[in-house]
Specification:
This protein has helices spanning 2-11, 54-63, 69-74, and strands at 21-32, 35-50, 79-89. By secondary structure, the protein is an alpha+beta fold. The two termini are 26 Å apart.
Length: 91
């Protein structure tokens, strides 16, 4: 998922180098009739971006899941909750 978002960001000329882009991921695992099952994944992306690119970053965030093979494989099986935390910079 992180790679797909980075690809969509690249299409908007938004850099996602390691010092500018990271993700924190958590999951909920529940007992489903005696079998442990991942039921929810929470992803918080952190992006440092130029002020003039912040809106494009939000737009990329709003569409990337529909282009992500991993996310599309999970849809209907595991809830995906994602958010983008933007740190706007002068450049």
């Amino acid at each position: 998922m992180m790679g797909t978002l980075a690809t969509v960001m690249a299409g908007h000329k938004i850099p996602t180098n390691r010092d500018r882009y990271r993700a924190d991921v958590e999951a909920d695992i529940e007992d489903a009739d005696g079998v442990l099952k991942i039921t929810r994944i929470r992803v918080t992306y952190h992006l440092k971006v130029a002020r003039d690119k912040a809106e494009q970053a939000r737009e990329a965030m709003s569409i990337y899941l529909t282009h992500c093979p991993a996310a599309q494989s999970l849809v209907g099986c595991i809830d995906i909750l994602d958010q983008l935390v933007i740190e706007e910079q002068d450049r």
